[in-house]
Amino acid sequence: MNCTVIGTGYVGLVTGACFSEFGVNVVCLDNDRDKVAALRRGEIPIYEPGLEELVARNVKAGRLSFTSDTAEAIQGALVVFIAVGTPAAEDGSTDLSFVETVAREIGRNMDGYKVVVTKSTVPVGTSRKVRDWIQEELDAGGKDVRFSMASNPEFLREGAAIGDFMRPDRVVIGTEPGDEQSLAIVKDLYRPLFLNETPFVLCNVPTAELSKYAANAFLATKISFINEVSNLCEQIGGNVQHVARAMGLDRRIGPKFLHAGPGYGGSCFPKDTLSAAFFARELGIDFKIVEATIEVNARQRERMVDKIVDALSGDVSGKRIGILGLSFKPETDDVRDAPSSVIIEGLLARGADLRAYDPAAMKEMGERFPQMTLCKDAYEVCDGADALVIVTEWNEFRMLDLGRVKQLLSEPILIDLRNIYDPPGMRAAGFHYVSVGR
Fold first, then answer.
1. Are 32 and 12 in contact (CB under 8 A)?
2. Distance between CA atoms of residues 33 and 62, nearest Å
3. Has residue 179 been placed in a domain?
4. Helix pair 205-236, 269-282: axis angle to 10 deg
5. Model confidence band, residue 267 (pLDDT cutoffs 50, 70, 90)
6. Catalytic residue numbers, as ranges
7. Cα–Cα distances in Å, from 417 out to 128, 353, 436?
8. Which of 171, 198, 225 marks a domain boundary?
9. What pLDDT, in 10s, does the model give residues 61-79?
10. Residue 25 CB: number of other CB atoms within 10 A?
């Protein structure tokens, strides 16, 4: 089977590479010619463990290719995935301009039956709009061509995307009622997973579209909930990690996403919670839980700034503060809506002198905050700093040489916003140690 994935961002590139690993012939289409040229040279534009090797293997096997030729890519495929960006607008709505542009290009270049699949995270009703945009272009060109619409949301975690695609918890396929042909075609793409007894959720298109928002909103709510619990723990002398363990051992709740910290970030949770709240309001529904989740997350980030300031006796002006971790989570270079941004902005606004290190996310954050000094490793960050702040829990920060850290710091202050160290042990080692909810 031949398929085309439009968009070579995070979702599109991972989707195309993984389908080609299944034996499908995949063309990844992007209008950025420089990006396509770089991909053809084997240069991967994102940091994702294992992706470079996966792309190289399937390009060599002839199953994966990259192009900017829209007509060739669309006309040569039976299935066309839309995997372009859907950024949030200022009011929380979703900007569908890239999706519309792509849909119209599909309509202008469609020469026979296709299944058009929305892979991007889009508000409920978007697939219907895509159908209308495609049909408008077909009508304008005088073409009598039949096509099907489907929704196949992605559930990929940055840093673990390949494993999530190859060994997913579930595959959701939404098709239009009575369209057995498109359902059979999309299921066939996922046949290796079907044979491995991966659960499939087969539903209509609006249900599939909503499933992604519902999942992300719920996970974001778990994060905000445990952060609220952490605030209670700080007031009563409790330990949020013990509370989270007690909760997580209940199989109805589960332990994942119950980790107190500086709040959620990245390309999905912030955008998807805002979008879910927005389209619910448009339907006349007040999505109170999601609205509260968004509010709690914003407040938690500001609380982290206050926590750092308080650890330095209420004044960070002129103080040198080391920051470990800039990406929104480990194993990615993604800094979109990262908690580190709010923390850095807050400390700079209060006159702090910042030094930072991250294994993968230095370039973009350095450009965003040119007044911040970037360092070669964690120990250079510590050198002469009045305090060290752990913002992202990269593995290499979990086993720091604490003796060396203490020696390098001008004051032995460590603010651990990810709770990766043990409070009694840190205090015994001579640190003024601050964590979240403990």
1. no
2. 20
3. yes
4. 120
5. confident
6. 268
7. 43, 19, 6
8. 198
9. 999 999 999 999 999 999 9
10. 18
